[in-house]
Amino acid sequence: MSKNNHWTFEELERMENEFGMNVFDIGAADGETNSNTRNLFLKGWSGVLVEPCRHFYEPLKKLYKDEKNVKIFNGAISEFSGKTNFYVYESGGDSQISTISLVQKESIENSNWFSGRFTESYEVSVKTPSELINEYQIPLDIQFVDIDAEGSDMQILKAWPWETVKVELFCIEPSMGKDTLKNFMESKCYVNNMSTGGNMFFVRKT
């Protein structure tokens, strides 16, 4: 949930000159709070933001209403397409843990870590990574993919079109466990070059 904005900005500022300016942010929230991509869009990067939560989507849409290079999908990404329930955690500091994962919801409810509660659920659209990439015409050479999907991160990775879409840098919340994530990404030829409290960064092997 927490993110290392300073490191991300410096690393991707370097990549801007080397590779290009494409971003795919899955779990963008309001676009500012704990965002790894806000500074990049302010510098003119292009990309797609994904956010299923209604109370985050509205300020996100307002934030980028005049930016033609920024597209927003008000839905979720997973290994399937269609519709699913979205479980909304009450507004406030922990609201970003809202999720489409029933397992994640039940884990949070059984935890003593959070003091709030889930207040509602509603149906949201779901697309696979490939569907969204095709629909929004996302370039097949992406510089930065940020995945913070609150329990759906591994499903997204398993459905990722590894053979056709090249990504220079991934930032992923290890909801499935750090070792599990590291082993999976290594099988896809990505190396963990840095970790923060809430994220692991992976660069493509050259």
How would a textbook summarize the main sheet?
7 strands, mixed
Radius of gyration: 16 Å
Helicity range = 25-40%
Give me the number of helical elements: 7
Q: List the uncertain runs.
A: 1-7
Order of helices and strands: HEHEHEEEHEHEHEHEE
Strand segment count? 10
Strand order of the largest sheet: 3-2-1-7-8-10-9
Average pLDDT, rounded to a whole number, is: 90
Cα end-to-end separation: 29 Å
Question: What is the approximate shape?
Answer: globular
**From the helix content, strand content and strand pairing, which structural class follows?**
alpha/beta
Percent range for β-strand residues:
25-35%
Summarize the structure.
With 206 residues, the chain is an alpha/beta fold.
Detailed description of the structure:
- It is a single chain.
- 30% of the residues lie in helices and 29% in strands.
- The protein is built from 7 helices and 10 strands.
- It has a 7-stranded mixed beta sheet with strand order 3-2-1-7-8-10-9, with helices on both faces.
- Helix 6 links the parallel strand 7 and strand 8 (166-172).
- It is globular and about 45 Å long.
List keywords for this structure.
seven-stranded mixed beta sheet; disordered N terminus; three-stranded mixed beta sheet; alpha/beta; single chain; 29% strand; 7 helices; 206 residues
Task: Please outline the helices and strands.
Layout (H helix, E strand, L loop, with lengths): L4 H14 L3 E5 L11 H5 L3 E5 L3 H10 L6 E4 L2 E2 L4 E8 L12 H8 L8 E10 L1 H7 L5 E7 L5 H7 L6 E7 L5 H10 L2 E6 L4 E5 L2
Parallel strand pairs: 1-2, 1-7, 2-3, 4-6, 7-8
Antiparallel strand pairs: 5-6, 8-10, 9-10
